[in-house]
């Protein structure tokens, strides 16, 4: 069998061919002390004549005047030149073959999978500038390198050296080979395969890096994998999470690898339990994450290997595709502890190998130039499928004895997977048990598996519940490699919400990006579940910092800033898109606060897209106490409906009481009605939050109260826009800051107290919003609204504050 090796114009290259046996079952019989002995073994020294012995003792054959002399596709007999390295005198880097035309090496080898290693020494030779050495390398049908420049690659290396090399296994390129927790292992110390193993330190993300000391006493038993899989030193060192089981649950040990985008990667993880306390199944069970997905939920080295001191490896494949044309993406590999089902809450890893898998093309882009600029190369056109959003898919490959056999059929498997999952970003919710011929649009957000969600929430553990709403419970969870805390909202079987709200939330938030709108990370719709995943908000909701809480109360300026942020988010919904979006469920529990107290509007399940300056006829939905009475009567939704709800929020922030509280006197049940009455009577100062009395500047209070009152007027036409509200709140904050500065100057060492505002009038419309002062019933069908003379109102109330009861006998708020 002849195998050709093609090198296009202007190439300087050193070659070493190292061929592996295809039938790996024969390899298992190799004893642990014996290195691997290949059938075909060729070391070719380009640009040299005769044999040369390298420092490691290997003999290299010169290609000049040998049976491997390259065939050149050029009429010029002198197209190929031999050049002596001006600096390096070591074999095989002392000479190079340089050509201005394509030349080919032919090798007669046995059938089977071939391992190829290319050596490069980037140097400028006489009449040849190294920065212009741009070339490609092919082996049979496979493109190993395309428009490659060794000079740029060497200069961009974080740990630059004199030489670089590339390794391939027919359709696989070696990316990284790490001795986790140990030192570097040179090729001469490998198992006869002359591979170099590097330390893992520079790839670790965590500051806490616990590694086990080198164990030179344990007798390794290669009964599960062949002895040449990795050097023994790889299995004698490892990294773990540490000895503190509490701390171990709070973080994952994560490695970060920059890789070329647009390829599949074959990943091999090496394990060996060599600590004497880990000898039984379930002594140390842990989780493995690859590319932000769960690869192993119940990893147990003893189960895989069969005992202590027995090396084993596990193989995986991951696709790294991005929507953007990024040269590099980060591939994360992480291990994390399990909460239950293990004697020790810990994890272990001994070695990592990463290979780029090709579909006949292994070439990635050159690094960005540092000191030199190569000729401009037009990037290849991307197919339509490459425009899909980032897709990450993990395939678990059988490990142990069959590991490398599987590699030989990888190309076929990857091809099938590519064809099958070409549009995997589009998920048909119509397949769900609760769906009704609906499907999600493409390229919205990430789809999580139910197993990932269960892992993140410890199977929906009740101790991780951080909130409860009309949709269902909200859990605190850790997704992917565990470096980010997220909020996970799961639809309750008792919820009145369902598929429509689920789809609306995904479609809305996937298109909206604003600092004052909560970010949707992804969703899950497996096994009839409907789960939404968001950024985690450290400080929960605005409601949790106003009243009936053990949290510290917000000062007045904090409240103003939060209201301004929420107003900005709502204004973006109304004006920032081609068509206005009405939120329909604005309330203090739907205004979230991050770690810096930045307000973010959330919960878009009831949102509705409208028309410019036109009311939308729709079924009435919302939460009692915040619901626009005009919308409830006319069933016509406009942006002014959100303005009304936000006005109630402003009053709730000022008064620190619920929007509806039936435990009070009847005239005080509805906050909006009661506040308007107090404003007209000039007694608003009596119902503001006692915590705020004496802390609000009169000028600020006047502006704020005018804004709040104008928002809750009965007719929408009399209400301001959200932009007006936002601007007036900013002005109110300015008034407060100026007053505080003046107070500080006049009384620098004293307590700043403003005269209580007990008499203040706002001129507004005379009507009151009595529409919600009667009985409110929840509609199961969500399709009918009834208005009667005794002010009884029937409408679907889907928020967390809604119930099905008569007003006088039930507290309507959570």
TrEMBL record:
Which UniProt keyword terms apply here? ATP-binding, Glycoprotein, Kinase, Membrane, Nucleotide-binding, Serine/threonine-protein kinase, Signal, Transferase, Transmembrane, Transmembrane helix
Indicate the segments forming the Protein kinase domain, all copies. 460-731
Per the record, membrane topology reads: Single-pass type I membrane protein
InterPro entries for the chain? ANXUR1/2-like (IPR045272), Kinase-like_dom_sf (IPR011009), Malectin-like_Carb-bd_dom (IPR024788), Prot_kinase_dom (IPR000719), Protein_kinase_ATP_BS (IPR017441), Ser-Thr/Tyr_kinase_cat_dom (IPR001245), Ser/Thr_kinase_AS (IPR008271)
Q: Which CDD domains match?
A: STKc_IRAK (cd14066)
Q: Where does ATP bind?
A: 489
In which compartments does the protein localize?
Membrane
Per the UniProt record, which residue ranges are transmembrane?
12-30, 394-415
The UniProt GO MF terms for this protein read: ATP binding; protein serine/threonine kinase activity; transmembrane receptor protein tyrosine kinase activity
Q: Would you tell me the Gene Ontology cellular component terms?
A: membrane
Which PANTHER family does the record cross-reference, listed alphabetically? Answer: OS03G0124300 PROTEIN-RELATED, PROTEIN KINASE DOMAIN-CONTAINING PROTEIN
The name of this protein is: Protein kinase domain-containing protein
Q: Taxonomic lineage per UniProt?
A: Eukaryota, Viridiplantae, Streptophyta, Embryophyta, Tracheophyta
């Amino acid at each position: 069998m002849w195998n050709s090796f093609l090198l296009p114009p202007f190439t300087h290259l050193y070659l070493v061919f190292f061929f592996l046996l295809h039938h790996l079952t024969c390899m298992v019989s190799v004893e642990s002390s014996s290195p691997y002995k290949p059938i075909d073994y060729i070391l070719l020294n380009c640009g040299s004549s005769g044999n040369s012995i390298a420092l490691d003792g290997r003999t290299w054959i010169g290609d000049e005047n040998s049976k491997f002399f390259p065939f050149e596709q050029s009429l010029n007999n002198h197209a190929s030149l031999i050049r002596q390295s001006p600096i390096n005198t070591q074999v095989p880097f002392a000479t190079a073959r340089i050509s201005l035309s394509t030349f080919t090496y032919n090798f007669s080898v046995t059938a089977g999978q071939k391992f190829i290693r290319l050596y490069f020494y980037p140097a400028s030779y006489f009449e040849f500038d190294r920065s212009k050495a741009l070339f490609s390398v092919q082996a049979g049908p496979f493109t190993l390198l395309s428009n490659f420049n060794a000079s740029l690659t060497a200069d961009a290396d974080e740990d630059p050296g004199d030489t670089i090399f590339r390794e391939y296994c027919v359709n696989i390129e070696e990316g990284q080979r790490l001795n986790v927790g140990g030192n570097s292992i040179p090729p001469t110390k490998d198992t006869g395969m002359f591979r170099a193993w590097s330390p893992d330190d520079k790839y670790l993300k965590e500051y806490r890096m616990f590694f086990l000391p080198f164990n030179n006493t344990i007798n390794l038993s290669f009964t599960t994998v062949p002895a040449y899989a990795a050097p023994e030193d790889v299995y004698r060192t490892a990294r773990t999470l540490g000895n503190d089981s509490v701390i171990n649950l709070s973080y994952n040990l994560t490695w970060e690898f920059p890789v070329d985008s647009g390829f599949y990667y074959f990943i091999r993880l090496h394990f060996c339990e060599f600590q004497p306390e880990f000898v039984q199944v379930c002594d140390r069970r842990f989780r493995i994450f690859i590319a932000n997905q769960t690869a192993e939920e119940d990893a147990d080295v003893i189960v895989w290997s069969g005992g202590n001191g027995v090396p084993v490896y596990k193989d995986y494949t991951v696709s790294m595709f991005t929507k953007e044309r990024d040269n590099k993406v980060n591939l994360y590999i992480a291990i994390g502890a399990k909460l239950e089902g293990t004697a020790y809450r810990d994890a272990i890893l001994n070695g990592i190998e990463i290979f780029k898998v090709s579909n006949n093309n292994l070439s990635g882009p050159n690094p960005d130039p540092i000191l030199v600029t190569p000729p401009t190369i037009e990037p290849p056109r991307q197919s339509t499928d490459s425009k899909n959003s980032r897709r990450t898919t993990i395939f678990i490959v059988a490990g142990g004895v069959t590991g490398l056999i599987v590699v030989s059929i990888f190309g076929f498997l990857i091809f099938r997977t590519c064809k099958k999952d070409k549009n995997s970003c589009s998920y048909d919710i119509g397949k769900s048990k609760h769906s009704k011929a609906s499907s999600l649009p493409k390229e919205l957000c990430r789809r999580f598996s139910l197993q990932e969600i269960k892992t993140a929430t410890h199977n929906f553990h009740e101790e991780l519940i951080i909130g409860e709403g009309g949709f269902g419970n909200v859990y605190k969870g850790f997704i992917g490699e565990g470096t980010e805390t997220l909020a996970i909202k799961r639809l309750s079987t008792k919820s009145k919400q369902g598929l429509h709200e689920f789809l609306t939330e995904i479609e809305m938030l996937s298109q909206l990006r604003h600092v004052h709108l909560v970010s949707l990370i992804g969703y899950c719709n497996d096994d009839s579940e409907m789960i939404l995943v968001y950024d985690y908000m450290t400080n929960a909701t605005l409601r949790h910092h106003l009243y009936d809480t053990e949290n510290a109360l917000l000062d007045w300026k904090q409240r103003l800033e939060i209201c301004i942020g929420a107003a900005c988010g709502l204004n973006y919904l109304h004006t920032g898109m081609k068509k206005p979006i009405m939120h329909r469920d604005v309330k203090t529990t739907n205004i979230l606060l991050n770690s810096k107290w930045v307000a973010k509007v959330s919960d878009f399940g009831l949102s509705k897209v409208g028309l410019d300056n036109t009311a939308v006829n729709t079924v009435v939905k919302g939460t009692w106490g915040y619901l626009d009475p005009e919308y409830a009567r006319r069933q016509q939704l406009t942006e002014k409906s959100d303005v009304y709800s936000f006005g109630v929020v402003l009053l709730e922030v000022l008064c620190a009481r619920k929007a509806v509280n039936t435990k009070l006197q009847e005239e005080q049940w509805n906050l909006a009605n009661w506040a308007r009455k107090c404003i007209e009577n000039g007694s608003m100062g009596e119902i503001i939050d006692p915590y705020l009395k004496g802390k609000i500047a009169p000028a600020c209070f006047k502006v704020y109260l005018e804004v709040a009152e104008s928002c809750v007027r009965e007719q929408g036409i009399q209400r301001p826009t959200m932009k007006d509200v936002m601007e007036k709140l900013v002005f109110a904050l300015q008034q407060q800051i100026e007053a505080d500065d003046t107070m500080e100057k006049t009384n620098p060492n004293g307590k700043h107290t403003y005269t209580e505002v007990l008499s203040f009038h706002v001129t507004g419309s005379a009507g009151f919003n009595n529409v919600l002062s009667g009985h409110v019933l929840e509609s199961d069908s969500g399709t009918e609204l009834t208005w009667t003379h005794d002010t009884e109102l029937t409408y679907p109330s889907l928020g967390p504050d809604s119930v099905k009861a008569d007003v006088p006998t039930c507290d309507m708020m959570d």
